[in-house]
Task: structure prediction
Amino acid sequence: MSLTKTVGFFAGTTLAISGVAFGAEQNNDALSQIAELKAEIASLRTAQQGDQWLTEQRATEIRGIVTDVLADSETRSSLQGSGAGAGYNGGFFLASADGNYSMKINVLQQMRWTFNDRTGASENGLGNNNNWGFENKRSRLSFGGNMVDSTWTYKLSYYFAYSNDVEFNGESPVLADAYVAKDLGDGLTLTVGQFKLPFSGEYGVDAGNLQFNDYSTISNLFAANYGQGVMIGYASDGFRINAAYVNVISEVNSEFDENSPAAEYAFTARAEIKASGTWEQFNDAQSFKGDEFGVLVGIGANWENANSTNNVFNDDAQLFGATADVTMDFGGASVMGAFYWDNVDSDAGTSNPFGFTAQGGVFVSDDVEIIGRYEYGDLDTVGSGSDFSALTLGANWYVAKNQAKLGVNFGYAFDGVSGAWAGAASGNNLLQDANGEDGQWLIQAQLSFSF
Result:
């Protein structure tokens, strides 16, 4: 072999061996990298499986919690009558899910402090000339709502305390409202039980929504208060009328006995025209700032033939009464005027007592109102105590409108308070005067809560 061929052989062999060695080294590196990648993938798979297990565990726990909550809600729904509701909306209420049964609970609480000054009382055996003190004027609990379906409604209200009771003829505690009403459709309503009689506009306002601390003395004397019987009503957007047939006018909780009926017949009715505004705004005696303009005109009448064994005249006395009133709301101010007239025919003769009241208020801020009222009445009898004349001035601070308010009143009776006026005026804390005395005055402050 030549030298050239020998050198070429060894050179080629060397290159081939080197190439093989180099290729083997590259393959080893690749295999090592592949092994590392496989290890990382395996690690990621293990982590993923762990996360998936944790996720499944969380999901199982959440499903268990949801199941427990659903089971608890089903228990509560069962206890509440399949989804009954509860809360506060103008009163604390309970209601079934279908709305066929509901109950709303309301409370009226009025606390009053009064100072009264009159002359000649102690000298004539009528107590002290000056009297003052606190009283629980009204404590009333009311229940109302619907039953069977939304067309059947009911109301029960009970006065646990009622000082200087004019409304219920000296009875306290006393059941007031106790009736069931049926919506007959087309604006017609039938009411059976014990209820406020439809007659006076002022007395138609709830005691918790009054502008003054109490109803006027004129209203206390002339207004038909409560009665037991049946009432039919009709209401449309601008007109409504109610008429009632009862045992006797202004009597509650009467029972059937050997002297029944308490009256041969007793009817009372009231019609109202709403020229402007809404019916709801006239549920309040005042007109708050922001309320819309409203005008309400009303007339009322009552007619009663008394049973001779069951009335103050001890004969078959007949009474016919009539009233007319106008209320105007101006959104921050209001005025109301009412006139009353009676015709009383008894063995003692015929008389025509009458009276009127005019009152109003204006808001000097969003929650402070200045008020004034003048009232006059004539019993159409001869002698002392026939006339009544009184002025009341005051201010109201509405903490939460009629739900919480403070009223301060100053009252002055120009004429002596005696006879029938003494009973009617007791609701306003005016006391009986001795004959020939006049000029009685008082100051009273009252906290009223209605919720």
In short: The chain is about 20% helix and 45% strand. Confidence is low (pLDDT under 50) at residues 1-27, 75-82. Residues 149 and 274 are 29 Å apart (CA to CA). The chain has two domains: 1-79, 87-450.
